[in-house]
Design goal:
Layout lengths: L16 E4 L2 E5 L16 E5 L2 E4 L5 H11 L4 H5 L1 E5 L12 E2 L2 E8 L26 H11 L6 H9 L26 E2 L3 E2 L29 E7 L22 E4 L18 E4 L8 E2 L3 E3 L1
Parallel strand pairs: 10-13
Antiparallel strand pairs: 1-4, 2-3, 4-14, 5-7, 6-7, 8-9, 10-11, 11-12
């Protein structure tokens, strides 16, 4: 049996949401950009029903309202630490544990959504940026409060493509058409030198860069976004081509869209078809979410 989507309260505001009429689309990728072991392919036709989706990822301002209304404590706050990109830490920051296979990630005590770069940082000037250090479980709690839910992977990808069929990015196949930066990703040499050619070293405002064909902002780059689905590397395991909801169980949830740390040298996952797996209780400084609501 497929995992049931969480119930919604029905009290959600539609402000900031876009109604998508749904329909068929080709999901996944198997081109030169794809990572076969991630399960991006084979490409298959999926049909999606209509739904509402946030035009932008949930912002710090929105999450502040939720946290103040409910006194909710995120998992990073309860664990008293989260992972921060090393380049965002001060030069004199004391040594901390690094992720084994990604040493640019540092486990920082006091890092959480209110302190995105560690205990020395704050939300000053970032209320319009996406909330980060949010686990899948935290995102679920926000959705329950807001009367929304997380999108399925298929819903997310349908929305992110903006009506384009099998294009690499929400705007087409070129990363920087005519030299224009259309999303917030790493430029230069990762992880040591970011030229900041797109204007941002860390996250950018949730409505930065042009919207896609459906009126959605930053569906690639900036922050990874949680979906409702359990991760499995094979599309063939999914039980339906109509509003598919992914495997019935698993150990990790699907994230989509890539982040400001993606770079072609090691992580070309800043694409609509790309996917990532992360456990529901994990949090980092480059993961957020956006919500959907049944139409």
């Amino acid at each position: 049996m497929t995992e049931a989507l969480p119930a919604v309260t029905g009290n959600a505001s539609l402000d900031g949401m876009v109604l998508l009429g749904g329909g068929p689309f080709a999901m996944g990728a198997e081109d030169a950009w794809a990572y076969p072991n991630d399960g991006e392919g084979p490409v298959r036709e999926v049909r999606i029903g209509s739904f509402w989706i946030d035009a932008c990822a949930v912002s710090n301002a929105q999450f502040t309202q939720f946290a103040e209304s409910t006194r909710f404590t995120t998992e990073a706050e309860r664990f008293e630490s989260s992972f921060v990109f090393a380049g965002l830490l001060p030069d004199d920051f004391p040594p901390t544990q690094a992720a084994a296979q990604a040493p640019w990630w540092r486990k920082v005590e006091g890092a959480d959504w209110r302190h995105p770069d560690g205990p020395h940082s704050s939300l000053d000037g970032r209320l319009g940026h996406p909330v980060v250090h949010i686990s899948w479980n935290d995102a679920q709690a926000y959705c329950a409060w807001a009367g929304t839910r997380l999108p399925t992977e298929a819903e997310w990808e349908f929305a992110a493509r903006g009506g384009l069929a099998q294009q690499v990015f929400p705007w087409g196949d070129e990363l920087e058409p005519n030299g224009e930066h259309l999303m917030n990703v790493w430029q230069g040499d990762f992880p040591g030198a970011n030229t900041v050619a797109d204007g941002y070293y860390g996250t950018c405002p949730v409505d930065a860069f042009p919207m896609n064909g459906f009126g959605l902002y930053n569906t690639t780059g900036n922050v990874w976004e949680w979906t409702a689905d359990w991760f499995h590397p094979s599309f063939r395991e999914r039980d339906s081509s109509i509003d598919p909801k992914g495997p019935p169980q698993g150990t990790s949830k699907v994230q989509k869209g890539g982040s400001h740390l993606c770079h072609h040298s090691y992580c070309r996952r800043y694409r609509t078809a790309a996917r990532n797996a992360s456990t529901p209780d994990s949090s980092t400084g480059n993961v957020g979410f956006r919500c959907v609501r049944n139409a």
